[in-house]
Amino acid sequence: MRRVQFIELHEQPWFPPPLRHEITDALEFGLNLLKAYAPIASLLQSVLDSTRSWSIVDMCSGGGGPWLDLSRRLHPDTQAFHILLTDKFPNLRAFQNVRAASENHIAFYPDSVDAMKVPGELQGFRTMFTSFHHFPPEEARALLQNAVDAGQSIGIFEITRRAPSTIVLMFPWALMLFVFTPLIRPFCWSRLLWTYLIPIIPLVLLFDGVVSCLRTYGPQELCEIIKKLSGIQYQWEVGEHSKGSGRSPITYLIGYPKALVT
Predict the structure, then answer these.
(1) Any residues with CB less than 8 A from the CB of 240 and at least 6 apart, and which?
(2) Which of 168, 194, 212, 238 is deepest in the core (most CB within 10 A)?
(3) The Cα angle at residue 30 between residues 28 and 32, in degrees rounded to 5
């Protein structure tokens, strides 16, 4: 199955911001409810230990991504452990909610952050969860090149895959909203309207979920992208991390300056 470059509705500039925020709230809730990225906690721990990078800059964070769950699974050996959420369209209400739930262990950057042009003052191990597929090949390369030019480590993680079995899972993922929407925080009445009376949120999530699978890069394509990067010597790791129990693996790309590892 070849990669398809198509649009996801909620990432478009014309998409209503209130609806976008409610959709990213739902995505954040689902990722943490299902503990979707829990299996890569040990892999992430190993990279952070090796590079001694305990300041994390999460890009394209949406409603907070999986960090509320992941942050509790990591075991830093320093008090300097710090997670900063960023996004091109920051969902500040959701970010504030995640910060409070994490007892201020997770912070956020209030201004818009373009993942291809990360502000110089944001230093740390860059992470992206279920968002790298948003970028077409040239922009994906520019995003990675920006990290290399800044001398920053980066980790890309994707639970979506261009596989029929994963695409089919987008349907129960969308249907979950009809059960769990009242539990999503921060609570808002409009989310009930756009889920139960006029089901725009489930339909957009279903559409965008299928498109996400079709846009996701496979390991071979990620290798082709990093071959075109230039600059200081980096160590790159590309693969698929099995989640066990017959579930689909998580695709990952991790890069860091070789000078960081002794």
Answers:
(1) 219, 249, 250, 251, 252
(2) 212
(3) 70
8 A C-beta contact, residue 237 and residue 40: no
For Cα atoms 148, 149, 151, give the angle at the middle one, nearest 5 degrees: 60
From residue 120, how far is each of 52, 107, 150, 178 by CA, in Å? 20, 17, 8, 42
Give phi and psi for 251, each to the nearest 5. Answer: -80, 140
Determine the Cα–Cα distance for residues 117 and 168; give it in Å rounded to an integer: 35
Q: What is the pLDDT of residues 106-165, one digit of tens each?
A: 999 999 999 999 999 999 999 999 999 999 999 999 999 999 999 999 999 999 999 999
- The tens digit of pLDDT for each residue in 9-58 reads 999 999 999 999 999 999 999 999 989 999 999 999 999 988 888 899 99
Query: Which of the following CATH numbers is that of domain 32-163+215-260: 3.30.70.890, 3.10.20.30, 3.75.10.10, 3.40.50.150?
Result: 3.40.50.150
Residue with tokens 């409810």: 33
259 CA to centre of own chain: 26
